[in-house]
Amino acid sequence: MKYKIIPVFLLLIGLLMAGSCQKSSGEQGPKKVAVIISTLNNPWFVVLAETAAAQAKSLGYEAKIFDSQNNTALETDHFENAIVSGFDAILFNPTDADGSVVNVLKAKEAGIPVFCMDREVNSAKAATSQILSDNYAGCVAIGKYFVQTMPKKAAGTTINYVEILGLVGDNNTWNRSKGFHSVVDLYPNLKMVAQQSADFDRNKALEVVESILQAHPEIEGIFCGNDAMAMGAYQAVMAAGKAKEIKVYGFDGAQDVIESISNGKIMATGLQSPQTMAKTAAIYADEFFKGKRDFPPKMPVAVELVSQANITDYSALTKRN
């Protein structure tokens, strides 16, 4: 029998290649975390996104931020991308409480946990956990301060005010509105003469309030469902020369509004903590990777009232970069 002799250098090359293949196939890189945010056209959500990504990276994972631009269709594209690209978890800020459910369920079917931040989806079985501000309670506090700071007038005199809503498909919009009205509606002399949506957007709020002021120049208060809209509303009030007559209230605890409260412009806001929600979501993802499966369906995060009455207690926040 004849044997075929394999040259030594070919044998060595073959062994090296086999070892290399075994190494690459056995190696596993860090897990990947997708951070899908409703919009980055708002500084508050930028903080939410960047904190979530930074926390995931600090835990040893890769992280990438996706901007849905308040568009559910684009959000769907991001979820499909995350699924086919092999992301291992999704830290999620939904665009729509109902419309986003299907995207979360797709990820769940693919075995990818989804942790909602700040905004929720209307399903108890879709997300692995939802980390949410206590929007209702936060706006109860704002409602009380609103009542306390409205002008004191003779009995029977009506005080007109306006409410600027956020995205109508977002539960936060209605939880904030309900919390506010649970207090304000107890006072019959306070009359809401207009309630319009500005989609949580500063420029839209500016336009909406400008239009409202033309129809209702006599208003004395504006409650806005977030701080971006409060800044737009205040800009409209300033342009109309009514900054002393009309008081503006927001919600979020955004840096520019905290500074505006300190400067005696905006009356109050509800201070949420995007950092707390983002870090919690990333930590939950880390715990999921390590085997934990028992997460709270909803994790409430407290909201603090920051107003012209207590702004000195938050002086450190006015000095942040």
TrEMBL record:
Annotated family: Belongs to the bacterial solute-binding protein 2 family.
Keyword vocabulary terms for this entry: Signal
CDD domains attached to this UniProt entry: PBP1_TmRBP-like (cd19967)
Domain of life of the source: Bacteria
Record flagged with keyword Membrane: no
GO molecular function: carbohydrate binding
Protein's organism: Larkinella rosea
Predominant place of localization: other
Name listed for the protein in its UniProt record: D-ribose ABC transporter substrate-binding protein
Domain Periplasmic binding protein: 33-292
Localization terms from the record: Cell envelope
GO cellular component, one term: cell envelope
